[in-house]
């Protein structure tokens, strides 16, 4: 597959996706969206791939949606085309996707990172929703996902002032899983992805699905949903293998069945 705005590389069972519009600090235009969605569909469909890492450059994960592409659009264009709705496909990727963020993750860049399953941040990372400075609001889910991640007080302050949050504050606030020295970010993200990709594939899907259910369901429904998925895994060969491997003190040999 040929991509114009991203680089895609398979490293064993890990797919590494690098945003590659350095001249625009990886601003997310329609082509980036099309490329990312195509890459994620291919990743999901490939049984040889278990986890993806999405990253940018040392200076910018992504500096936002492409302001130059949007600036002349009117309401009819935006509403008529349901602008940004295509990002829902990215967010529906079934296998885990890690965001490895160095430098700026602003506006749509922060929103893209939050669409991934978790964020690993370089100590240089800066997160923000500065759309208010452009006379608009987040449009790719930022007001919702940021509020889920860091709570109302910080999300509201960031959306209303456009101020950036550094990596340390982002970790303290629950926006990122871990902060890593910038020169080790990619190695760490790839190792983390390898760990995930080495697990039983159906259990990986089920774990991702049930954690995400926590954002859509009441506690009671979510606990029930978890239990049913858990029960379902007892119909898989990999559950028998995983538990036998534990008893026999050896690593599991997964079939994805
Ligand atoms: C298009 C962008 C861009 C963006 C940067 N560039 N961000 N182009 N869309 N979001 C371009 C610049 O125009 C410039 O191109 C080149 O990238 C380098 O950027 P500089 O500004 O020269 O770099 P620097 O001075 O280091 O400043 C870095 C920065 C700044 C602080 C990240 O670029 C910035 O504030 N960018 C915009 C951040 C933002 O507002 N993001 C939210 C966008 S709206 P040239 O051709 O001049 O060299 C959004 C959500 C949309 O994401 C929701 C609905 C609107």
TrEMBL record:
It comes from the Bacteria. CDD domains: crotonase-like (cd06558). Its EC number is 4.2.1.17. Pfam families: ECH_1. Keywords: Fatty acid metabolism, Lipid metabolism, Lyase. The keyword Lipid metabolism applies. It catalyses: a (3S)-3-hydroxyacyl-CoA = a (2E)-enoyl-CoA + H2O; a 4-saturated-(3S)-3-hydroxyacyl-CoA = a (3E)-enoyl-CoA + H2O. GO terms for biological process: fatty acid beta-oxidation. GO terms for molecular function: enoyl-CoA hydratase activity. Gene3D superfamilies: 2-enoyl-CoA Hydratase, Chain A, domain 1, Lyase 2-enoyl-coa Hydratase, Chain A, domain 2. Could possibly oxidize fatty acids using specific components. NCBIfam families: PRK05862.1 (NF004517). Belongs to the enoyl-CoA hydratase/isomerase family. This is enoyl-CoA hydratase.
């Amino acid at each position: 597959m040929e991509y114009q705005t991203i680089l895609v590389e398979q490293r064993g069972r890990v797919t590494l996706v690098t945003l590659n519009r350095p001249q625009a600090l990886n601003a997310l235009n329609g082509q980036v969206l099309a490329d990312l969605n195509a890459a994620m569909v291919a990743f999901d469909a490939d049984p040889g791939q278990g986890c993806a890492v999405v990253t940018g450059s040392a200076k910018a994960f992504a500096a936002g949606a492409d302001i130059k592409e949007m600036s002349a659009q009117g309401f009819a264009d935006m509403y008529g085309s349901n602008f940004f709705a295509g990002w829902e496909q990215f967010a529906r990727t079934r296998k885990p996707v890690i965001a490895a963020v160095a430098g700026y993750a602003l506006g749509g860049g922060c929103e893209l990172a939050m669409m991934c399953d978790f964020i690993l941040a370089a100590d240089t990372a800066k997160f923000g929703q500065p759309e208010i400075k452009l006379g608009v609001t987040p449009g790719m889910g930022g007001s919702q996902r940021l509020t889920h991640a860091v709570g109302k007080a910080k999300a509201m302050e960031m959306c209303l002032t456009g101020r950036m949050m550094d990596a340390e504050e982002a970790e303290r606030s629950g926006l990122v899983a871990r902060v890593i020295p910038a020169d080790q970010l990619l190695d760490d993200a790839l190792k983390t992805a390898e760990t995930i990709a080495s697990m039983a594939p159906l259990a990986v899907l089920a774990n991702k699905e049930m954690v995400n259910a926590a954002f859509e369901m009441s506690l009671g429904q979510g606990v029930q949903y978890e239990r049913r998925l858990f029960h379902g895994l007892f119909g898989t060969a990999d559950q028998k293998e995983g538990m036998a491997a534990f008893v026999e003190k050896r690593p599991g040999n997964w079939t994805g069945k």
